[in-house]
Amino acid sequence: MLNEKLKDYNIILASASPRRHAFLKSMNIDFEVRLHPVDEVYPDTLKGTEITDYLAKLKAEAFKTQLKEKDILITSDTIVWLDNKPVEKPKDKDDAFRMIKSLSNKTHEVMTSICFTQTNQQKLVNTITKVTFKTLTDDEIWYYVDTYKPLDKAGAYGIQEWIGAIAITNIEGSYNNVVGLPTHLLYETLNSIAKP
User: CB–CB of 177/49 below 8 Å?
Assistant: First the structure.
């Protein structure tokens, strides 16, 4: 399968996310993790997947001079999109409460771009998942924020946690995308890159 096709390649995942690491392991993909801090600033004229496309490519830039012939660098970026603007990671608990409150009784979009960079080419793919929340009480939101500490997550929530179990009434698209990586796109693109 894919791992056999990739045996001559060196897969580099530029992410500290334990969720993304777990996905690649579950897909039997051998990989190494390399990190380069990047200032995730983008032009304010960008909208939706233009933002995640831009940031996924920006994260790859730092590695450009380090890549060898058989390296495939994977960089990605995810945002939550609501009312035509991004919902970033929260600054503190009050910010997390405000963010989740804004998602209550609404449908938002989770957008992810994945960039595959080699010495001779770069491929960029993206996907959108629509997620609908029920109406959440303030007590439910505070329970989640206090118990699960979602300050490192876009949109201030993790779908795989308690809030995903109790709040989500509908989902259209890739569930794994909302967890942290659209694995079907990862698989398809690596397959196309590694074809003999």
Answer: no
pLDDT in tens, the chain (196 residues): 888 899 999 999 999 999 999 999 999 999 999 999 899 999 999 999 999 999 999 999 999 899 999 999 999 999 999 999 999 899 999 999 999 999 999 999 999 999 999 999 999 999 999 999 999 999 999 999 999 989 988 899 999 999 999 999 999 999 999 998 999 999 999 999 997 6
Evaluate whether 155 touches 81 at the Cβ level (below 8 Å). no
DSSP string covering 50-103:
HHHHHHHHHHHHTTGGG--TTEEEEEEEEEEEETTEEE---SSHHHHHHHHHHH
Q: Which of 77, 83, 138, 152 is catalytic?
A: 77
Q: Is 77 a catalytic residue?
A: yes
User: And the tokens for 50?
Assistant: 């233009």
